[in-house]
């Protein structure tokens, strides 16, 4: 595990120190990768398709599981955000991935035109 962390730190150090790979963002701005840049309305569509996939499967849903490919992407994005936030601020979350996804869904229902990352931030940093 230590080797993986060391390798991650080395690669991250290279990425942030190489002018070709990284540049400084203006204050308050950051680059968004993956599904985080999609609108909440896209996430809500994935939620509905995920629910339909479970109904069609005829199997009871287990916590943290997903069937619909687009929803899996959102679920993995949330899991990564929770992990990275926990690692970077040395803080554990007392939330399950299912609860986090529910919080994101509620945020997106209230703000469908915003980006999915904003719903993730409502979980990882609820004071914002």
Textual characterization of the structure:
The chain is mainly α and 128 residues long. 61% of the residues lie in helices and 0% in strands. It has one domain. It is built from 5 helices and no strands. Helix 4 packs across helix 5 (116-124). The chain is globular. It comes from Acidisoma cellulosilyticum. Keywords: Signal.
List the keywords.
single chain; 5 helices; globular; mainly alpha; 61% helix; 128 residues
Question: Helix and strand layout, with pairings?
Answer:
Blueprint: H1 2-17, H2 40-57, H3 69-89, H4 97-110, H5 116-124
> For the CA atoms, what is the radius of gyration?
17 Å
Number of helices: 5
Judged by helices, strands and strand pairing, the structural class is mainly alpha
N- and C-termini, Cα separation = 33 Å
Please indicate the count of domains: 1
What do the pLDDT scores average to?
A: 80
Largest sheet data: none
- The SSE order reads HHHHH
What is the tally of beta strands?
Answer: 0
Identify the overall geometry. globular
Q: Into which percentage range does the β-strand content fall?
A: under 5%
Report the uncertain regions. Answer: 1-19
In short:
Residues 1-22 form the signal peptide. This protein is an all-alpha fold.
């Amino acid at each position: 595990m230590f080797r993986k962390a060391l390798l991650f730190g080395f690669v991250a150090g290279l990425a942030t120190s190489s002018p070709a790979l990284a540049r400084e963002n203006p204050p308050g701005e950051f680059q968004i990768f993956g599904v985080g840049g999609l609108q909440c309305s896209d996430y809500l569509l994935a939620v509905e398709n995920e629910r339909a996939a479970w109904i069609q499967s005829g199997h009871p849903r287990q916590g943290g599981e997903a069937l619909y490919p687009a929803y899996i992407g959102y679920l993995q994005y949330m899991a990564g955000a929770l992990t990275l936030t926990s690692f970077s601020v040395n803080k554990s979350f007392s939330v399950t991935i299912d609860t986090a996804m529910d919080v994101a869904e509620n945020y997106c229902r209230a703000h469908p035109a915003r980006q999915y990352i904003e719903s993730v931030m409502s979980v990882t940093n609820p004071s914002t």
